[in-house]
UniProtKB/TrEMBL annotation:
Pfam families: DUF8003 (PF26010)
Transmembrane residue ranges: 215-237
Organism of derivation: Aegilops tauschii subsp. strangulata (Goatgrass)
Lineage: Eukaryota, Viridiplantae, Streptophyta, Embryophyta, Tracheophyta
Annotated protein name in UniProt: DUF8003 domain-containing protein
Keywords noted in UniProt: Membrane, Transmembrane, Transmembrane helix
Annotated ranges, domain DUF8003: 127-201
InterPro entries the UniProt entry points to: DUF8003
Length: 614
């Protein structure tokens, strides 16, 4: 037996280069009885006891520490039992201060000795150590394996308990900790640097789960987009984004023209007279359609009678082909609108308005700079790119092209052409909803034209009063809500205008194949209007402008309606103002005015009246 060190004075470090052993003795002798009839081998000696009091141990390569049993003798000698080796460790460091206390590169054994012939092997001895503190286990107090923890004292390997996988994220692995893990919450690390602790999420997932998960984040994102749309719309209103309207002025606001070496058109020369422009105006031709992705703006073929004398018909039809192509939307624009309409309807409205604004800008640029004005008879208009201007209402629902004289026409032709201005159709903007009600937009050109017959104050009061009445007109119940408008025009509007030889009537115009039609008013001047008004039941076709240039026949009899069996809107489809199809709306024709029934009224009410501010 051997004792190395003491409890009071332990060895700081034991280095073994060679062999330290307390092995049992091996015997080769035999024994027999007194008569000599039996002989047997002597058993091997048992291993001894080695007790160490130390702080560190190093067993080098090819070195050994042994307390094994001896081998048994011949003729059946059994092996000796293994001895006992015990390490009483002192001052075992833990946690971050932990250092390895034993390094075994050789062998440490306490096995039993082998038997000879039929002799049995000896039992193995024991190799033990002092109880290890938390985080450490085994004879030599090593750290528990990664993924386990130990929070009690002892040396048994079963005390290293596996860590719970419930707290381990999917993209994480347990990591090594110096001195072993001493708590059930085992530390871990994400498998890649692109994932962030503690949940090993990507940055986007961090944001999503901050709001409670994908569904909660989707709801938050939905409302955030709506809020952003509201803020952007409010900012747009604050900064006073210019409305897309008809601009009578032709002053140059772009400094780029100042440095341009090319000849400017007359429309681009500063100082153009508004009065001259008003006098040269011939006709306003409105685009058909609501300017949606399914039904974009388009112009009808064949020139109106008002401009037949100032255009070449073939070239005019080619111009219609070209401008209708420019006015059409791309397929992807409608696809984006459909997606946004499902995800965030206010954003879909903003998208539609943005594309509409782009479209009217494109139309204006095309007519102003790209089209050669070859459809106009006036040489001066063709040379100076003058004679056509594109404009629209502020809500981008209605667009139009104004036709002007070039100034080189014959005097008689000019007089005859200007006489054809009236009756004039003025189409309402809007779509008959709360957020976009019907309204009459009177721009500078219209005010100047009508200012020749009625004072600006009276006309502006008429427009303001009419717009007030139109706010209550709903597309889904147009028959009942248009009645008060007709009555108001009859009782308040016309009495003020008739003193000046002007009269207005409500009408519908430019029906398309889809069933969409536009509402507006017909403005007529001159005393011929009244003659026509008193005899409207017997009035001829609206296209008969050669006999009654200023007549606006009103369809007031049921017989007139029955005479038009092919109409699809309940009122006869006649010619107004030399080219605009439609009919006048009064108390009689209002009853047969067609409209689309809205079977999903609650849903459409929400969608049609939900959009960003401004």
């Amino acid at each position: 037996d051997a004792v190395i060190g003491s409890m009071k004075w332990p060895l700081a470090r034991l280095l073994i280069y060679g062999s330290v052993s307390s092995d049992g003795e091996s015997n080769r002798d035999t024994i027999g009885n007194s008569s000599g009839s039996f002989k047997g081998g002597i058993g091997g000696g048992s291993g001894g006891t080695i007790l160490f009091f130390l702080q560190g141990l190093l067993v080098e390569k090819n070195s050994s520490l042994s307390a094994s049993g001896g081998k048994g003798g011949i003729h059946g000698g059994g092996g000796g039992g293994g001895g006992r080796i015990h390490f009483h460790w002192s001052n075992i460091a833990t946690g971050d201060e932990f250092v390895q206390i034993a390094s075994i590169n050789g062998t440490v054994a306490s096995s039993g000795g082998s038997g000879n012939d039929d002799g049995h092997f000896g039992e193995d001895g024991t190799i033990t150590g002092k109880e290890c503190p938390v985080g450490l286990y085994g004879t030599f107090c090593t750290e528990c394996p990664v993924g386990t923890y130990k929070n009690v004292a002892g040396s048994n390997s079963s005390l290293c308990t596996p860590c719970s996988l419930n707290a381990l994220p999917n993209r994480a692995d347990f990591i090594y900790v110096r001195g072993g893990v001493t708590q059930p919450s085992c530390p871990y690390k994400c498998i890649s640097a692109k994932y962030k602790m503690p949940n090993c999420y990507t940055p986007l997932e961090e944001v999503i789960y901050t709001f409670g998960g994908p569904w909660s984040f989707a709801v938050f994102l939905f409302f955030a987009i709506i809020l952003l749309a509201l803020i952007l719309s409010a900012v747009r209103v604050k900064i006073g984004e210019s409305e897309v309207t008809y601009r009578a002025t032709s002053a140059i606001h772009n400094d780029a023209y100042a440095s341009s070496p090319f000849l400017l058109s007359l429309a681009e020369v500063p100082g153009a007279s508004r009065a001259e422009e008003t006098q040269s105006h011939v006709h306003r031709m409105y685009f058909m359609g609501p300017n949606t992705f399914r039904e974009p703006w388009h112009l009808p073929y064949s020139p109106p009678e008002s401009i037949i004398g100032i255009v070449y018909e073939d070239a005019f039809n080619r111009f219609i082909d070209e401008i209708n192509l420019v006015a059409a939307f791309e397929w992807w624009e409608g696809s984006v609108h459909s997606i946004l309409a499902v995800l965030a309807y206010p954003c879909a409205w903003s998208w539609k308005q943005w594309r509409r604004r782009k479209k009217i800008h494109r139309l204006q640029e095309y007519v102003k700079s790209e089209y050669d004005h070859s459809c106009l008879r006036s040489c001066r208009s063709r040379a100076l790119y003058k004679g056509l201007k594109v404009g629209s209402t502020p809500d981008l629902m209605v667009a139009y092209i104004d036709f002007f004289l070039g100034g080189d026409e014959k005097r008689l032709d000019v007089a005859a052409t200007i006489q054809k201005r009236f009756p004039m159709c003025l189409i309402f903007g809007g779509e008959g909803s709360y957020m976009s009600p019907y309204h009459l937009h009177s721009d500078t050109l219209l005010s100047n034209l009508l200012g020749q017959y009625v004072s600006t104050a009276i006309w502006n009061r008429l427009v303001a009063g009419l717009n007030t009445q139109l706010r209550s007109v709903k597309q889904g119940s147009i028959r009942s809500t248009l009645g008060p408008v007709v009555s108001w025009i009859k009782s308040h509007g016309n009495p003020q205008l008739e003193r000046h030889g002007v009269r207005v009537e409500l009408g519908w115009f430019q029906a398309t194949a889809s069933g969409y039609y536009q509402l507006g008013i017909v403005v007529a001047v001159n005393e011929n209007f009244y003659k026509s008004h008193h005899h409207h039941e017997h009035a001829p076709d609206f296209g008969d402008r050669s006999r009654k240039n200023f007549a606006v026949p009103l369809l007031g009899s049921k017989q007139a309606i029955q005479d038009q069996p092919c109409t699809s809107y309940g009122v006869s489809r006649k010619r107004l103002t030399g080219g605009v199809t439609g009919g006048v709306i009064n108390e009689e024709t209002l009853k047969s005015l067609d409209y689309k029934r809205d079977y999903l009224f609650p849903l459409s009410l929400l969608l049609r009246n939900c959009r960003p501010i401004g």
